[in-house]
Design a protein that fits this description.
- The chain is of the alpha/beta class.
- It is 40% helix and 8% strand.
- Helix 7 links the parallel strand 2 and strand 3.
- The N and C termini lie far apart (57 Å).
- Bound molecules: thiamine diphosphate and magnesium ion (MG).
- This is Pyruvate dehydrogenase E1 component alpha subunit.
- Keywords: Oxidoreductase, Pyruvate, Thiamine pyrophosphate.
C-alpha cells in the first residue's frame, strides 16, 4: 500500500513501485508479493511470454493492415504487454473484464479470437464479440465511462451472492482497465465513490502509459496517479507495469481481495506507450527520441525473455515453435480481416438496445426511406449505401 500525500519528485516517481524482475530480468525478492507470484512455474511463465509475443505480433499486423487501408484506425498496446498479460493471467474464468480500447494483451490472455477485435477497428461491427463468451466486455472509447459500468456490474455480482462465499470456483471479481488520462475524468471519481461505499468487488486497473494522446502525465497530476484512490477510501498499489511477474502478483492479490468481500483496489501500473496513441497520431511532435530510447531499453517482453534465459527455461525449440505460431497468427489475421466483407446498411440499427426502442425504430425507418430514394422508377440503384 502507498502513503497519501505529494511525492517530492512528482507523478513519474518510482516511489513504492512493486517490482519482482529488474529491467535486466533478474528476480528480486519482495516481502509482500513473492507469495502472490509463487504459483508461476516455468510453464506458466512461458505461457505469459507466448501471450506477450503474440500480442505484439497482433499490434504489428493490425498497424500494417491500417496502413494498407484495411482498418479505419488502430490503437496499439505496444510496451504495455506486461501490464495486460500479467493482470490477465491473474483472472479466473468467472471474473469479468471491462476494457478500454487497447487491451489486446488482456484479450489474448483471455483466449479471445483476436480477429474479432479487428471487426471494430475495420468498422464492420459495433462491438465485434459476444462479451458473455469470455466475460470480456466490449471496448469502450468514451474515456473512463466503463469504470462506472464495471463498478455497477461488480455491485450486481455482489447482490447475486457471488462474493465472499469461500467457493473459489464461484466467487467473482470485476476488473476495469483505463489510462492515466482517464483518471482526470469525472466518471472515474464517481466509480471510486461507488466502489468504496459499496465495497464493490472491483479492481480499478490504471495503465499509466505516461500520455493521454499528447498530454504527458505531468500535465494531469502533481502526485502519482495511485494517490488519487486513498482519498476515496480505496487502497492503492503502484506496480512496475513492465514487469509481468509483478503485475500478475499485484492483480492476483487485488482480485482475491475483491472476490473474498474485501472491496475494491486501485492498481497503477507504471509503464510507457512505446507506439503512437493511434494510427492517426504522430508522437514525434510531443516527445523526444531520447525518451523513447530510454523506454525501449525497458521493453517488457525483453525483460521476461532475459529472465527465462537466465533460468534456462526458454529452450530454442520453444522459441522456434513460437516464431512459426506467430507467423501463422499473422497470416490468419491478414486473411480474416481482408475477408470480413461489408455489413448491410440497416445492420447499424441492430444490437443498439437489447429490446426495441422507438428512437432507433424511427431512425431505421428514415434510413430505409432515404436508401429507397436512390432507386429509380425501373428499380435500379442509383447511389446511396452499397
Ligand atoms: C470522454 C472522452 N473525452 C475525450 C476523448 C478523446 N480521447 C480519446 S483517447 C484520449 C486520451 C486517453 O488517455 P488515457 O486515459 O491515458 O489512455 P491511453 O490512450 O493513454 O491508453 C482522449 C482524450 C474521448 N474518447 N472520450
Ligand atoms: Mg495514457
Amino acid at each position: 500500500m502507498i502513503p497519501t500525500g505529494p511525492a517530492a519528485d512528482g507523478p513519474l516517481t518510482d516511489d513504492g513501485l512493486v517490482q519482482l524482475l529488474t529491467p535486466a530480468g533478474e528476480r528480486v525478492e519482495h516481502p509482500e508479493y513473492d507469495a502472490w507470484a509463487a504459483d508461476l512455474d516455468a510453464d506458466r511463465l512461458r505461457a505469459m511470454y507466448r501471450d506477450m509475443v503474440l500480442t505484439r505480433r497482433f499490434d504489428v499486423e493490425a498497424t500494417a493492415l491500417q496502413r494498407q487501408g484495411e482498418l479505419a484506425l488502430f490503437a496499439q498496446s505496444l510496451g504495455q504487454e506486461a501490464a495486460q498479460v500479467g493482470s490477465g493471467h491473474a483472472l479466473r474464468p468467472q471474473d469479468h473484464v471491462f476494457p478500454s480500447y487497447r487491451e489486446h494483451g488482456v484479450a489474448q490472455a483471455r483466449s479471445l479470437e483476436m480477429t474479432q477485435l479487428l471487426r471494430l477497428f475495420r468498422g464492420v461491427d459495433h462491438g465485434g464479440w459476444d462479451p458473455a463468451e469470455r466475460n470480456f466486455h466490449l471496448f469502450t472509447l468514451v474515456i473512463g465511462s466503463h469504470t462506472l459500468h464495471a463498478t455497477g456490474y461488480a455491485m450486481g455480482v455482489q447482490r447475486d451472492g457471488l462474493v465472499g462465499t469461500g467457493d473459489a470456483e464461484r466467487d467473482a471479481a470485476v476488473v476495469t482497465y483505463f489510462g492515466d488520462g482517464a483518471t482526470a475524468q469525472g466518471d472515474v471519481s464517481e466509480a471510486l465513490v461507488f466502489a468504496s461505499v459499496n465495497r464493490a468487488p472491483v479492481v480499478l486497473f490504471c495503465q499509466n502509459n505516461q500520455f493521454a494522446i499528447s498530454e504527458p502525465t505531468t500535465r494531469q497530476a502533481t502526485v502519482p496517479i495511485a494517490h488519487r484512490a486513498p482519498g476515496f477510501g480505496v487502497p492503492a498499489v503502484r506496480v512496475d507495469g513492465n514487469d509481468v511477474l509483478a503485475t500478475y502478483a499485484v492483480t492476483r492479490q487485488a482480485l482475491e481481495r475483491a472476490r473474498s468481500g474485501g472491496g475494491p483496489t486501485f492498481v497503477e501500473a507504471f509503464t510507457y506507450r512505446m507506439g503512437a496513441h493511434t494510427t492517426s497520431d504522430d508522437p514525434t511532435r510531443y516527445r523526444t527520441s531520447a525518451q523513447e530510447e530510454h523506454w525501449r531499453r525497458r521493453d517488457p517482453i525483453e525483460r521476461l525473455r532475459a529472465h527465462l534465459d537466465r533460468t534456462g527455461e526458454l529452450p530454442e525449440v520453444f522459441q522456434a515453435q513460437l516464431a512459426s505460431e506467430a507467423d501463422a497468427f499473422g497470416e490468419h489475421l491478414r486473411t480474416t480481416v481482408r475477408g470480413m466483407g461489408r455489413p448491410s446498411g440497416p445492420s447499424m440499427f441492430e444490437h443498439v438496445y437489447a429490446t426495441p426502442h422507438a428512437v432507433v425504430d424511427a431512425e431505421r425507418a428514415w434510413f430505409e426511406q432515404y436508401e429507397q430514394s436512390f432507386v429509380d422508377h425501373e428499380g435500379h440503384q442509383t447511389g446511396g449505401h452499397r
